[in-house]
């Protein structure tokens, strides 16, 4: 659960809905089902950006582009990098 106020998808305006739906199309299929879903089925990390739809769009579009299967890194490399960043930042995810 996020610790900040978020806007659930059911209450989102058109700009926020477009940003939330658009970010999903860039992600690899294995990210389709969030581990910690927010209200409405999206992920909590996406919901944490719901107060600023433009930031949500740009942040998650960047992540989607970095996860492109056309790039030389494989999924296991992404996971190793993410694990090391989380350990370094003392983050649990």
In helices, the fraction of residues equals 40-55%
Q: Return the average pLDDT rounded to an integer.
A: 85
- Rg from C-alpha positions? 14 Å
Helix-strand sequence: HHHH
Estimate what percentage of residues fall within beta strands.
Answer: under 5%
Catalogue the unreliable spans.
none
Number of helical segments? 4
Largest sheet: none
Structural class: mainly alpha
The count of strands amounts to 0
What shape does the CA trace take?
globular
Separation of termini? 13 Å
Give a nutshell description of this structure.
With 93 residues, this protein is mainly alpha-helical. The protein has helices at 14-24, 44-47, 53-66, 75-88.
Overview features:
93 residues, mainly alpha, globular, single chain, 0% strand
Overall description:
By secondary structure, the chain is mainly alpha-helical. The chain has a domain at 9-68. Helix content is 46%, strand content 0%. The chain has helices at 14-24, 44-47, 53-66, 75-88.
């Amino acid at each position: 659960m996020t610790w900040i106020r978020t806007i659930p998808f059911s209450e989102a305006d058109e700009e926020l809905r477009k940003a939330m739906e658009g970010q999903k199309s860039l992600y690899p299929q294995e990210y389709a089902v969030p581990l910690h879903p927010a209200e409405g089925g999206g992920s909590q990390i996406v919901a944490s950006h719901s107060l600023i739809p433009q930031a949500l769009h740009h942040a998650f579009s960047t992540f989607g582009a970095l996860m492109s299967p056309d790039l030389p890194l494989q999924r296991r490399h992404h996971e190793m990098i993410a694990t090391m960043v989380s350990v370094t930042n003392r983050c649990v995810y």
